[in-house]
Amino acid sequence: MNRLRQPSRLKIAPPLLKNPSKLSRAQLASSRTRKPRFPALIGIITRHHIPKRLLLDGSSVWFPYAGRSPKGRTLRAVLNIPRQPSPTIRSAITNIYENSTRPMSSWAQVVTTPTADTPGACVLLHFDQRRYLFGRIAEGTQRAMVQRKIAIAKLHNIFVTGTVDWSTTGGLPGLMLTLADVVAGAKAARAEEVAAREAKGLKIKDRDIDDDLHIYGGRNLLHTLATTRRFIFRKGIPLSLNEIRTDSSCQRNDRALPDFEDDLVRVWHLPISSSPSASRPGSRKRKHSDLEEGNDETETPIMDDAELSDAEAQHIRQAAVAGMFSSTWSLDTLHEMNLRDVDPTAKIFFRSDSGMIEEYKGPRPGIGKELPDIRVLIRSPWPAAKIETLPDTKPSKESLCYIVKCHPRRGKFKADAAAKLNVPKTDFRKLVAGESITSANGTVVTPEMVMEADVEGRGFAVIDIPAEEMVVNFLARPEWSDSTLMSGVDVMYWLSSERFSAYRDERIVEFMKKYPSIQHVLLGQDVCPNRLALQDPADKTIKMNFIDPERFPLLKFDNRPLAPVDTGNIGAPGARVNLHPKQGPSSEFLVPLLDPANTIKGMVGDHRAVLEMANEARKKIADPAFLAEVQESQKDIPDLDTEIIPLGTGSALPSKYRNVSATLIRVPGHGSYLFDCGENTLGQLRRFYGLEGTDEVLKDLRAIYISHLHADHHFGTASLMARWNKATTDSYLGVIAVDGFHRWLREYDGVEPLGLDRVIRIVPYPTGGWARAEQAATVASQYPETLNEKEIELQASRLPKVEICWVDHCLFATAIAMTFPHSGLKIAYSGDCRPSKGFATLGKGAHLLLHECTFEDGLRGDAVAKKHSTISEALAVGRDMGARRILLTHFSQRYPKLPAPIGIGAESEESSADKVELKKDTSVLYAFDHMHVKLGEFKQAEQFIPAIKKLLEDEEKLKEAEKEGEEEEVVGEEALGDKAQKKAEQQRKKAEKQKKKMEHNKAAQKHGEKKKRTPAKEPEVVKVEEVKPQERAGKPEGAEKPEGAETPVEKSAEVKSSGAVGKPEEVKTQEGVEKLEVKEPEDVVMT
User: Fold this and answer.
1) Other beta carbons within 10 Å of 179
2) Average pLDDT over residues 281-299
3) What is the C-alpha to C-alpha distance for residues 712 and 702, in angstroms, rounded to an integer?
4) Which residues form the Metallo-beta-lactamase domain (predicted)?
5) What is the average pLDDT across 935-959?
6) Residue 527 contacts by C-beta under 8 Å, 6 or more apart in sequence?
7) Which class for 432: exposed (0-12), middle (13-18), buried (19 or more C-beta within 10 A)?
8) Which residues contact 528 (CB under 8 A, 6 or more apart)?
9) Which has more pLDDT, 572 or 1069?
10) What is the pLDDT confidence band of residue 792, given thresholds at 50, 70 and 90?
11) Of residues 459, 457, 410, the one with CA closest to residue 132
């Protein structure tokens, strides 16, 4: 006998069917397409897909129970609703139905405002089934979306505003990679689901996965993304890059026709330039399909190359981008060719006499040795990488703005008017669909006679004027005088650049005053406060500052509003403008400002043990005996005031608590050096030093080292070098990287000047033509042509000695050792790699080692597979190197705050056996973002490690306790289902007892016995409640809270139950018949 433990979890399938077993497959298939509305709560039945007609008229509805019987059979149950429910039930059902029907909602929401963490502002247009992103997709955008839990899985259209450079597109490549991985994960899950259903012989349900991504932007969008072809690659992701280079309004007769249109929105693009003559004529209208195919219109060439037309150059860029995401290239595919035609850097294989494929280790092309005349096998590079160079380009002088409007909504159907016109109900659907019908008396009824007027679609505009010389062209746009187009625009978002704020221009202020009904939202660096946009990592830093203020200084931020403006409202993250079903601004979802005082109060109240440990550490480092011991142990270490500031300590992609790889080292008297430069490194510097302080650091910057060409190690270089170029005028910068990175800099320099004429190219080259791991590289320096010999000698003396070796990670992955000749200070940095003996030899005697430790010791298999190091392996390299100070960094994103210590993990016994024994005078620290430690303070910082670990462990325990509390709540809800059954059984017995008593009284009355009758008890009251949406969040549908928990009730209606009970009904399944013992009152019977 099966017992239904919790009826509240039953979900309705085809709701208009009584017995699906008696219907044909065609009838079943058609019934499944119906999507009826559902009430929120009826008794203990929650959110069932029950049509309103069935609830009011009464019926029996079959639906599957989301569970299994002990025999593994799928259960089905029946919902019996009386034909004539009481007026109270009818009223309650009607109220619940009307309050729970939610039309599709849409709104525009500010995602980011200009801050150090998020230098660009962008706006998200939300629909239930799709998302659109408008604005400057700058570095840090993706990390901010992760911080605020904004899902990007439904993001398929991105509209870039402003002039295309790294300030508007710097976050786009990383966001594209993440979206591609999301789609790939969804496809893999779908493939597993299909395979599982095929194995069970079940029918495969057709379900498409939206895998397309459309990106729209101005001139140089294609070129910018094509430059990244050497280090961005994903397969099978349909990507459409649409560079808008023409003004479609110039010859457009009807401005109501949009440039982009789908089933939800319409978008008009508004290109503006520095002069009216810069606007180029184009087609009358470009629809969605035209934008996806790209623009092949001929126009004035912007390149110096006389050999290629602009259309041909664009075709090359399109091919490069297509090869980055839409190719079918496979790593396992080998191609045969002659040895002398092989690229010297390629990995070469050959087929042995036994037919096995083996690696070729003989002489290679390009080394001057005689080559055997043999055929070999090589991997073909992915298609995009085959394009050696891109056509030249120049910085764009155009900006792009947008007008966005939702589609008009159909007016309501007037049933009363249709009834007066004698329209049969069967023809209502035709009228709603826009068809005219003829009534029985011959009257022609048109939709306008029975439909209310359409509701105009609401919308907004995104305005980005990065330069003053573009204002005239902007004000001359014909769209502003088109009342039809501007009707329905509720808000204008005004984005600004660092050099110009349009909303402070008198001409723009007058323009804004012409539209008093439109809300003007200002999103500029000069008005939006430099708030802590990434609140969780900032909160962690504040707590660590309370423990160790020397190593964790407070970040630079300002929550105060900046210079006021005459017109408009200052935008804030989370601010919404509702478009449908209700219109108007909403402040309900504003992101609150982080107050450090509240964080400190929480520390004092919740982490007393941590504070006691921190106090003990402070006493220890203030002890003269300890200080004397430290001074004695490190008297042979030079430059003890050398500062190490980790700016990014995570791997792969930016996460909530860790940015991607970057470490700044400042050597007094010898300048500053940056080891790797992941996305938004400039923002991390500005958050640590402030805007002016960052410029001072850039003036002191002497070299940037890029360990390898993975995007998470160098995507912040363009913005940092562009800022360095503006902040400095006569200094030179060394860029230490493989030749492929320098080629990327040269190609991108056409989009935005990086100051390459003042860059010293320091390039490692393979010895013997092939970059083999563990081997040392030949380092060559190339100085700018403008320097004479004396100046070259001067610049060479300003840089340390550079030694580089190849490591096992990816093609051309390197590790480095820098030695400063004046003091002998030696710094070694591993980049990403497996443990390297060559690197240990290269860095022999290093005073400071920065080594990656992506995985804990228990995940050595993952480290081997992904070519990374574990904690113990990194420490072993430091031991073999004889490093005096070791800073571990580059942690997997599975460790959001602190990795597992040595010997802890899935294989703790094996790891403990391999525990690394270090010398007594060796100090080891974990790196954190925005940590600040001097080379001579490692010993002091070590004393605070227990307190920091305790803090982070306590926070993890609090999170786990919250999760367990949610799970216990679910368990309590399941237990409540058993209690509900017991209560129903008690009510049944009580009703039977009352019935017998009444029968006994009637019998006594018939026999003339004058006995005082016991009055029957009042019917029990059953409340029909509607659960608030926030109460349902995170819980199973229909679940109730455990006993003792208070549940707020929004509405309730009393429903009197007669006290009678229904008999158990048979529940049919596909494989047999089961019975469910569920007793409910007659008014709403669940069996």
Assistant:
1) 21
2) 37
3) 22
4) 673-891
5) 91
6) 501, 503, 561, 562, 563, 565, 570
7) middle
8) 113, 114, 115, 121, 522, 562, 570, 571, 572
9) 572
10) very high
11) 459
Instruction: Tell me the angle at which helices 608-622 and 624-633 cross, rounded to the nearest 10 degrees.
Output: 70
pLDDT-wise least confident of 150-164, 265-279, 749-763: 265-279
Q: List phi, psi (to 5°) of 1046.
A: -85, 130
Per residue in 461-479, is it b (16+ CB within 10 Å) or e — as a string?
bbbbbbbeebbebbeebee
User: Among residues 1020, 1052, 1056, which one has the least CA distance to residue 88?
Assistant: 1056
**Site of tokens 């402040």:** 587
**What tokens appear for 373 in the block?**
């005349």
What beta strand segments (E) does 890-1020 contain? 923-926, 933-934
What is d(CA 792, CA 762) in angstroms, rounded to the nearest whole number?
13
Residue 592's identity, in one-letter code, is P
Residue 847 has pLDDT above 80, yes or no: yes
Identify the CA nearest to 831 among candidates 678, 716, 972.
Answer: 678
- Look at 1046 and 383; give whichever has higher pLDDT: 383
Q: Say which residues have a Cβ less than 8 Å from residue 297's Cβ, sequence separation at least 6.
A: 245, 246, 282, 283, 311
320 contact partners, CB below 8 Å, separation of at least 6: 226, 229, 384, 387, 390
885 neighbors 846 (Cβ within 8 angstroms): no
723's enclosing H/E stretch is helix 717-727
3-state secondary structure 507-540: HHHHHHHCCCCCEEEEECCCCCCCCCCCHHHHHH
pLDDT of 969 above 60: no
Report how far apart, in Å, the C-alpha atoms of 511 and of each of 123, 481, 507 are. Answer: 22, 11, 6
Name the β-bridge partners of 78: 62
Q: 495-551, pLDDT tens digit by residue?
A: 998 889 999 999 999 999 999 999 999 999 999 999 999 999 999 999 999 999 999
C-alpha closest to that of 139 among 683, 687, 928: 683
